[in-house]
Amino acid sequence: MLQTPLYDEHVSLGGKIVDFNGWALPVQFAGIVQEHQHTRSLASLFDCSHMAEFRVRGVDAVRAYSELVCSDPVKLKVNRSKYGALLNESGGIIDDIITMKLADDDLFVVTNAGPRATVAEIFSRAGDGVEDVTDTTAKIDIQGPLARNVLVRELPMAAELKYFEIRHAEWNGEAILASRTGYTGEMGFELFVPNELAVPLWRALLANEEVAPAALGARDTLRTEVGYALSGQDFDETRTPLQARMETFVAWDTEFIGKDALAAQRDAGGYSRLAAIASPDRRAPRHDFELRRDGKPVGVVTSGTFGPSVGHGIGLAYLDENCLDAGTKLKAGPRGLEVDVVKLPFYKDGTCRK
Predict the structure, then answer these.
(1) Per-residue confidence (pLDDT) for residue 110, from 0 to 100
(2) What's the CATH code of the domain at 314?
(3) Which of 11, 135, 200, 315 has the smallest count of CB within 10 Å of its CB?
């Protein structure tokens, strides 16, 4: 398995290491629920160095890149970030992405680990201005209501960052990037740093009494509680942005791969959509559970877990269009777990926009 620059730190902290898309990453330290609750109340550190990063430099490269993705990075303001997706010709989602605009001719793009090779090949079509910087970049996320209070002690400029804003910064005399983004629903920052800075920065942030390490397990329960979809699980190349509730991130007035197929689906209608389901107790719907209404199959669960902050089972599922209304009652899995369709987010007290 591949190792991030922080692998030895995880081992020394007692992290339980698992294989995540070919990377040796911790699934938990003190425990998933404890790490989850710490993130919701204080601040946690996540090692996300397995994710892929690309630089797109030059006016021509930026323009070419904009024709590959369904968002519109050309219109994006400098120092702002935008969520979007890279599609195949059928409109299916190869990966979801965050495009960060450092200058009119300089983009920083973050994608997921699993489809990195496919994404890199498609991005290469934008020309020599595209560079895969994954192998030299570490990514550390600090997330939680106290994340800003902690980070400004090391990075004073963090106090100025607004939601989905990114800026050049400096730490210990080295250039880094700081972004006011995250995957937990809480106040948070993603820090992109040279590999050699990962360990000293991790240790400096972890030295704060409000901060504890968190891992993949808590990251999953946190993101599910706020309804954030997971690439390769809640969507893949067989699902489109319309099905995955990403339609607000589609720039219909631009050209991009898969646009014709996506427009045809939009105009035809009749497609299943990702929805939220909840159980009345701690029992949770699980991945691949079939969902039934009056005994008839109407969908499938893609993510499911117990939500520590809401106190009951929660999940994301693709449902037929006539089952999407909140309050619709369904049964899930082989034992007929009773679930209701509900509105997102499950957890409504997140601090990410404060």
Answers:
(1) 98
(2) 2.40.30.110
(3) 135
Asked if 188 and 324 sit in the same domain, the reply is: no
Residue 354 confidence (pLDDT): 93
* 322 part of a folded domain: yes
Number of structural domains the chain divides into: 2
Whole-structure pTM value: 0.97
Show the domain range for 310.
Answer: 272-342
Is residue 148 in a domain?
yes
φ, ψ of residue 66 to 5 degrees: the values are -65, -25
Q: List the 93-103 sheet strands across, edge first.
A: 81-87, 93-103, 106-111, 52-57, 130-132
User: Residue 110 CA to chain centroid, in angstroms?
Assistant: 10
Taking the C-alpha atoms of residue 128 and residue 169, their distance in angstroms, rounded to an integer, is 26
Residue 294 lies inside a defined structural domain of this protein: yes
Shortest CA distance to 278 belongs to which of 231, 186, 348? 348
